[in-house]
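Subject: Sanity check before I submit

Could someone independently write out the structure tokens for this chain? I want to compare against mine line by line before I put it in a report. The sequence has 365 residues.
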Amino acid sequence: MARFDENPDFDLLERSVTDHAEQSAEPENLGLSKYEHLRVTAEKDYPNKDPIVTWGDKAVASQGNITGISAPPKGGKTALNGVLQAGAISQNGNVDGFIPIRVKPNPHGLAVINIDTEQSEYDQQYNVKTTLKRGGFKTTPNYFLSYNARQLSMKEYREVTDYICESAAKEFNGIHSIFIDGGADFIASANDEEKSREIIEYFTHLAIRFSCAVFIVVHTNPGGDKERGHFGSYLQRKCYGILTIEMKDGVSVLKGKATRKAGDFDPIFFKYDDEKGYHVQLDAPSENKDIELSEKRLEKIRNVLEQALTKPEGYRHGEAVQAIMKAGKMSSDRTAKDYIKAGVAHEYLKHASDLYYLNKQGNSG
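---
Independent answer below. Compare away.
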């Protein structure tokens, strides 16, 4: 009688088990190739992500990145959120927003998701209505998904957010942008360093996973312009940029900070309009001519004037204003007029016979 281990069927079984074990075991001695997918080289092809939001010609939000929106309580965060969301749901980019701010249009109806942890359903509904009004919508498009999370426990926030994003990405063939209105509410304390790092990492991975922009709204510290606690610190470190709002004499002033690929911005002023039922952009207040301008500001004025007023035959005042607004991407003619005043005062411009010329001699210095 043949032994069991001499049975041909046993040899076949033994080889099968051995092959399976070899395939199941993690290969040894992979060396650096194990993490080659994480290595960045000059030869690999990395697509350049399109900006989702630009301020003038500078990107402040893009696919795969998080962007912060910060302000004191009642400072105007909701208004800015409405401007950005109106642009995000717009299929042609034609919205009543802030002139320098441009949001990438959404012609294919990708999902736009808003998770609100702070406001009541009634207040959130009012904001949805004003967002639709800004965008010219009479009804809520099915791809605009605004959820009120206050009735959930904090422990459910991430699970519900994941489920909504996964389902929306499938139903609408992708996500345009995600708005987290109350990012610090996803953790018990904004001063918990470990949890703050963890939740900012979660939001970052959300942006990468769905190849979209994620906007995180957070309060600033009372009496200051720093975003709350360790949450705000990690947001600053990991974000593509922060759009921050401060209040000045009853007017909201939008500024950019901590931006990776943009420099200084001319601030945007806005205030609630009773007739329209939402915030509208205001002209920039005139600069006090008695205040000495900084060297950085003067350099910017000079550069814009040199770009704008190139005709040797000169410009009449109105023509000069329009040329300066175009070159400086300005929303207000008052700012352009201030540039002309500063240009004449500092001899960057000559003014003769109702015409304005570049002062080559003044510019050369």
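---
OP: Matches mine. For the report I'm noting this point. Residues 51-282 form a domain with the Rossmann fold fold (CATH 3.40.50.300).
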